[in-house]
Specification:
Length: about 325
C-alpha cells in the first residue's frame, strides 16, 4: 500500500454536474482533501508526471483512497461515488465505500505517523455516510483491470474524475464531479504480446538506477526465452525498465541472462553465469549463482535463481542481487 500524507498534494475541485443545484453555486459543497492511498498488485506508486501509475495485470483488482471534505455549513450524507470512465478504458470500477475519518491531532513540531483508512479491493456498494460541516470522509474506489482481449484498441486516457452523490438536510439529492488531479490513474499501456506466457518473476536489487524487475517489464518487449543446445542452457529475460523514478526513455532498460551446463532438473551451484545487461553493457556478472531447475521439458523450463548478495552495513558500495523464478519457452 502506498500513501501520500496531507499537504503533499493539492487535489482541487474543478467541475460540477450541470444537473445539480450545486453546479449553480459559487461555493461548491464538496472538495477533495490532500491525502492519497492506493493498494493492489497493479499499483506501481506515483507516476512521473503526477497521479498513480498502474501496470497491466489481466483482471487484477486494486483500490484508491482519497478524502472528501464537506465545505458547507450543513450536514451532508454521501451516498454514491462513480468515476467517469473513458470509452474503451482498461480500468473498470467495481464499487465504492465511504469511511469515517477522524485521525488524532498531531501536536505542532511533532513527528506523527501518516494516518490512513483501511482499503481492500473488491466489489462493494457504499453505505451512506453523514459528514459534519467542515469535516472529511474517506472515499475508497475499487477497480478491476480488463482482460487481454481488451488491449487492442484500448484508450490510454487516465481516470481523472469522480462523481459523488450526496443528500442535503432537506432530503434533496445532488451530484458533484471532482477532478482527481494528483490521484488520477495512469496506465502503462500494454501490448497484445504482453499476455503471452510464460513470464518470469525476477527482482533486481542494486544501485538505485538499476533496481527493477518483472513489475517494470517494458510493454511489448520480447524475452523469457531459452535455448538448449549441446548441453548448454541460454536464457534471456524480457526488458525491465531502469531509472524507474524518471519518465521512460527507450534506452532505459536491462535484461537478465543465464548461461550454464544443463542436464535437466536439479540444483546447479557454481556452474552457471548470471549477467545483468543494461542496454548493451554488462554491469553485473556472477559466476557463483544457485539455480534450482524444477521443471524441464522440450517446451518449457522453470527454475529458481539466486545470484549476488544483498547490501550490508560492512559492504563498500552497493552490490547486486538477482533473485526469483525464471520461466521460459525452450527451443533446441
Amino acid at each position: 500500500m502506498r500513501y501520500l500524507a496531507a499537504g503533499a498534494l493539492a487535489l482541487c475541485l474543478v467541475a460540477f454536474d450541470a444537473a445539480s443545484s450545486s453546479a449553480q453555486s459559487h461555493h461548491p459543497a464538496l472538495a477533495l482533501g490532500g491525502m492519497v492511498e492506493s493498494g493492489g498488485a497493479p499499483d506501481l506508486g506515483s507516476a512521473p508526471g503526477g497521479g498513480e501509475l498502474l501496470r497491466f495485470i489481466p483482471r487484477a483488482a486494486f483500490a484508491l483512497g482519497v478524502l472528501v471534505a464537506n465545505k458547507t455549513h450543513s450536514r451532508l450524507v454521501l451516498t454514491q461515488a462513480r468515476v467517469l470512465e473513458p470509452r474503451r478504458t482498461l480500468v473498470h470500477q467495481l464499487g465504492a465505500q465511504f469511511h469515517r475519518w477522524n485521525p488524532p491531532t498531531c501536536p505542532p513540531g511533532a513527528m506523527c505517523p501518516a494516518y490512513v483508512f483501511p482499503i481492500r479491493p473488491g466489489a462493494k456498494s457504499p453505505h451512506p455516510l453523514a459528514v459534519a460541516p467542515g469535516r472529511e470522509a474517506g472515499l475508497e474506489l475499487d477497480f478491476r483491470l480488463g482482460s487481454c482481449s481488451e488491449i487492442a484498441g484500448a484508450n490510454p486516457a487516465p481516470i481523472a474524475r469522480v462523481r459523488v452523490t450526496f443528500r442535503k438536510p432537506d432530503g434533496s439529492l445532488h451530484r458533484q464531479t471532482l477532478f482527481l488531479a494528483g490521484a488520477e490513474l495512469h496506465m502503462r499501456m500494454p501490448k497484445t504480446n504482453d499476455c503471452v506466457d510464460p513470464r518470469s518473476t525476477l527482482s533486481v536489487d542494486g544501485p538505485q538506477q538499476y533496481e527493477s524487475g518483472n513489475d517494470w517489464t517494458i510493454p511489448g518487449s520480447t524475452g523469457d526465452v531459452c535455448t538448449i543446445r549441446n548441453g548448454r542452457f541460454y536464457f534471456l529475460s524480457r526488458k525491465y525498465q531502469t531509472h524507474i523514478s524518471r519518465p521512460f526513455r527507450p534506452s532505459h532498460y536491462e535484461r537478465v541472462t543465464l548461461q550454464m551446463h544443463f542436464r535437466g532438473t536439479g540444483t546447479y551451484r557454481n556452474h552457471a553465469t548470471v549477467k545483468l545487461v543494461v542496454a548493451k553493457k554488462t554491469v553485473f556478472r556472477s559466476h557463483t549463482p544457485v539455480v534450482d531447475v524444477t521443471k524441464a521439458t522440450s517446451r518449457e523450463v522453470i527454475a529458481k535463481i539466486e545470484a549476488g548478495r544483498l547490501p550490508s552495513g560492512t559492504t563498500r558500495g552497493i552490490p547486486f542481487h538477482i533473485s526469483g523464478t525464471l520461466r521460459c519457452r525452450a527451443t533446441r
